[in-house]
Specification:
Layout lengths: L1 H4 L21 H8 L20 H10 L4 H19 L8 H12 L5 H12 L4 H6 L3 H21 L7 H9 L6 H11 L8
Length: 199
C-alpha cells in the first residue's frame, strides 16, 4: 500500500544497482566538486604579499600567513610601530596583542631592541590598549614580562648611566626622560603593567 501511494516502482531483476545514474543524487555536491579554483582556506599569504591597509585585512592575512614565529616576528619589525598604530587605531582586536607579545618574546634578537621598542610603543598608542592588556592570558602576561625584562637588561647593558662629563650632562638635561631608551622602556613597562623590579 505504501509503495502504491508513493508512486514507487519495485525493482526488477534487470535493474542494476551499479548502473551509472543519469541524474546525480545530490546536484549541489556534484557542482562543488567540479570547481577547481582555490578555496579561501587554501589561500596562503606570504611575507611579500602582506600589505594590509585595514585592521580586518591585517587579521585575515595574519591568520593565513605561511611560516612560523620567526617570519611573523620579522613582519612585525618590518611594519614598525607607526604602521601598527595606524592599522589598529580603534583597538588591537581578536587577541592579537597577546599573539604579538608571545612572538616578540620568543624571537627577540640582539640588535632589534630599537625596532622592538618602536613596535611596543606603537601598540601602546592604539585605542582600548588598557583593556587589551587586562585581557591578556597568563601565558601572554608571562611572555610580556619576559620580553620587557630582557629588553631592560639589554638597554641597561648597552646604555650605561650617563657619565659625569659636561657633554653628557648637558645632553641628558635637554632630553626628556621618555626620549632616552631607558626612560622610554620604563614608560612602556608602566603602560603594559610590568613592574620595573625583579625578573
Amino acid at each position: 500500500d505504501i509503495v502504491l501511494a508513493s508512486n514507487l516502482k519495485p525493482l526488477d531483476k534487470k535493474d542494476k544497482a551499479d548502473a551509472p545514474r543519469k541524474q546525480p543524487w545530490n546536484s549541489v555536491a556534484a557542482a562543488c566538486k567540479e570547481k577547481t579554483g582555490p578555496t579561501p582556506e587554501m589561500v596562503q599569504t606570504t611575507l611579500t604579499d602582506f600589505q594590509p591597509k585595514t585592521a580586518s585585512e591585517f587579521v585575515r592575512d595574519w591568520r593565513r600567513l605561511q611560516g612560523g614565529s620567526q617570519e611573523k616576528y620579522s613582519l612585525l619589525l618590518r611594519l614598525g610601530g607607526d604602521v601598527l598604530q595606524g592599522l589598529f587605531s580603534a583597538e588591537v582586536g581578536f587577541g592579537l596583542l597577546g599573539d604579538f607579545l608571545v612572538i616578540l618574546s620568543q624571537c627577540l634578537q640582539p640588535g632589534d631592541e630599537a625596532a622592538m621598542i618602536g613596535v611596543l610603543e606603537g601598540l601602546s598608542k592604539t585605542g582600548r590598549f588598557g583593556l587589551n592588556v587586562t585581557l591578556l592570558s597568563q601565558t601572554e602576561q608571562e611572555a610580556c614580562k619576559s620580553l620587557f625584562h630582557r629588553l631592560r637588561d639589554t638597554v641597561e647593558g648597552h646604555c650605561p648611566p650617563y657619565q659625569k662629563s659636561s657633554v653628557n650632562t648637558e645632553a641628558s638635561e635637554t632630553l626628556h626622560p621618555v626620549t632616552r631608551p631607558a626612560g622610554k622602556l620604563k614608560y612602556l613597562m608602566a603602560m603594559y603593567g610590568i613592574c620595573g623590579t625583579g625578573s
